[in-house]
Write a structure and sequence with these properties.
617 residues; alpha+beta; 3 domains; four-stranded antiparallel beta sheet; 23 helices; 11% strand; elongated
Length: 617
């Protein structure tokens, strides 16, 4: 097993910078990831020899089998080493041995993951081999193949021969045969077959359209996927598998129609889907990480369009993560957190760049969809929203001063694409909704994460309580605190989606037809969505009077004042967190709950403090 020297051509770099990168570029990125995996494996084995000598012999034996398998079937072993679960496992073990993470599991048990990989390699290469493996929770997972549930937990000896796996657990003379038969002449996805209820193969999702094909493993068994700390699905019933295949087929047709070259790149780079389950906070969710190159973690998409969008979004992350293993684009900036329009919490600069790159890809995706969909309102909205949000983030990254020379070149490539998108015409209604939702997201983010200096807030509270004019020219430093992780979600966003997806239903809401909406949509949010800003503002103020910590109401009131241009509302619009902080301070000092509009009109607009302001729209 050897590591190659890699160089990235300037043309490849520039193609990636504008959000592209064909299958040829992706194959080159995969080759760099293979070298990274080999280097990581070498580091794991070296560290384990020092820190876990009892595991050293088992690791050495597993490595010997991997080497033998590579001689017999090099492409297959490369595929195993590039499996997302192996990347997650190797980096976790390395971090653990170097003190970056801890675990209640014995180190020797974590390191046992290489044994399962070696068994999978021996089976797929048709080798006769013996490898020590660890059976956890009465099951043995073989990467890329499946899981066996017929043996007791503990160490076992695995023997492979003729496509058959035999397990003998420690202290037991009984052998457990596991038939994993090779199908002569069959496609790779038919390498395994169910030999009874104890063996469960990893299912394959595949789709074809316009002469292009994609094949993905729907991996719900690899234990390494749990390292992502996401709501993973642990079982896939046949009905769910059928739905996954249907959604991928629909999404793949959309991708191939949208951009066949980009579709080929996705097929060249992605190998695995880790299925997620919906949560109370997110019915649709997708994620990816750099050390699991080739994988997308996602919930079952609601339709083909959602599937296509998720694949585009997450593959952008995959490409950029692989590039960042080769080139430093952003210098580390300790403790600096910034506004990310797709997150409820602030993000560091590398996360900001990752998100901007993902949404750059989505902006192009929605630009195409708005031209071909029979009902394009939602696509217009997404295009209008994300072209402006990505532009705003790119400006913030540029102004950070943390970009390296390659980073500046990369950012300029992204800016060129977004600038072109910003010149495109968008119908008035989706453009207006995009502007409102962007303002909503920014306002809610400031209320959640921006904290004005306590001493300045106290001075303002005392001045108000004493009936004095607010001090002019006051600078109110604002710190950004790391809030709870989360995605952007609000009832106002849901109502905007309803307006776009179901205009007739929304028209019934506007006309006041009872029973159209669920009760969780407040009267204030309904009035705002329907454009009745005076009624919405009054309802939001009542919510604040009932609960001064109701962030959604504070954001809603600021949004209403942004729409109506009410005199004296500039501070509420630009610094809602300051108005809320002084409002709370006055109540704590005097017991009074003052009118938010009166307080906002009294407050002077603070001098600039360096925190992000305005919507940029």
């Amino acid at each position: 097993m050897s590591v190659k020297l890699h160089r990235l051509a300037a043309a490849d770099f520039d193609e990636l910078a504008v959000g592209g990168g064909g299958a040829e570029v992706v194959h080159r990125l995969r080759a760099t990831q293979l070298s990274k995996r080999l280097l990581t494996l070498r580091a794991v084995m070296d560290d384990a020899a020092r820190l876990a000598p009892t595991a050293g012999g088992r690791l050495a034996r597993s490595f010997e089998v991997l080497v033998a398998a590579q001689r017999a079937a090099p492409d297959m072993v490369d595929e195993l080493l590039l499996s997302p679960g192996f990347g997650l496992w190797a980096m976790h073990c390395l971090r653990r041995m170097r003190g970056a993470v801890s675990s209640p599991i014995p180190l020797e048990d974590d390191l046992a993951g290489l044994g399962a990989l070696a068994v999978a390699a021996a089976l797929r290469a048709g080798l006769e081999a013996e490898v020590p493996v660890l059976i956890r929770d009465d099951e043995l997972v073989l990467p890329t193949l499946g899981r066996y549930r017929g043996a007791s937990s503990g160490w076992a000896q695995a023997r492979t021969a003729g496509g058959t796996l035999t397990l003998r657990t420690a202290g037991s003379p009984q052998e457990h045969p596991v038939l994993i038969a090779r199908a002569a002449g069959a496609a790779e996805r038919n390498l395994i077959r169910d030999a009874g209820s104890d063996w469960e193969p990893i299912p394959t999702l595949d789709a074809q359209a316009a002469g292009e094909r994609i094949e993905l493993r729907l991996d719900f068994v690899d234990p390494a996927r749990l390292l992502l700390d996401l709501p993973m699905t642990s079982e896939i019933v046949p009905e769910a598998l059928d739905l996954w295949r249907q959604r991928l087929a629909e999404g793949w047709r959309i991708l191939c129609r949208c951009d066949p070259r980009a579709a080929r790149a996705i097929a060249a780079g992605l190998t695995t889907v880790f299925p997620l389950r919906p949560t109370s906070g997110a019915t649709e969710l997708s994620a990816s990480v750099g050390e699991a190159f080739g994988a997308v973690a996602m919930t079952l998409p609601k339709d083909g369009l959602s599937c296509a969008a998720a694949l585009v979004h997450e593959f952008q992350h995959n490409k950029l993560s692989a590039l960042l293993d080769l080139v430093t684009l952003v210098e580390p900036v300790e403790g600096r957190l910034l506004y990310a329009p797709w997150r409820a919490d602030p993000r560091p600069l590398p996360g900001l760049l990752q998100g901007a790159y993902a949404y750059l890809g989505l902006t192009g995706f929605w630009d195409f969809q708005r031209r071909v969909l029979p009902e394009p309102a939602y696509a217009h909205f997404e295009f209008a929203r994300w072209r402006e949000e990505v532009w705003r983030v790119l400006v913030a990254i540029r102004l950070s001063g943390a970009l390296t020379p390659p980073g500046l070149r990369f950012l300029d490539g992204m800016r060129t694409v977004v600038w072109r998108h910003r010149q495109a015409a968008v119908p008035a209604e989706p453009r207006m909704l995009a502007r409102r939702i962007s303002a909503d997201t920014w306002t809610a983010w400031r209320l959640r994460n921006a904290e004005p200096a306590a001493d300045r807030v106290a001075a303002l509270v005392r001045a108000w309580a004493a009936g004095r004019p607010a001090p002019t020219g006051m600078r109110v430093p604002t710190s950004i605190r790391a809030g709870n992780r989360g995605l952007v979600d609000s009832t106002r966003l849901s109502l905007a989606h309803l307006r776009l997806h179901e205009p007739k239903l929304f028209a019934a809401v506007r006309e006041g037809v009872p029973g159209v909406l669920e009760e969780n949509f407040s009267l204030a949010d309904r009035a705002y969505a329907c454009g009745d800003f005076p009624a919405a503002a009054a309802a939001y103020k009542q919510q604040i009077a009932d609960d001064p910590d109701h962030l959604g109401a504070w954001a809603g009131l600021a949004l209403c004042r942004r729409e109506t241009g009410r005199h004296g509302s500039r501070v509420l619009i630009a610094h809602p967190e300051l108005v809320r902080a002084v409002h709370r301070g006055v109540e704590e000092l005097s017991g009074d709950r003052v009118d938010p509009d009166d307080l906002a009109a009294w407050l002077p607009e603070p001098a600039p403090d360096g925190t992000p302001g305005g919507t940029g729209l």
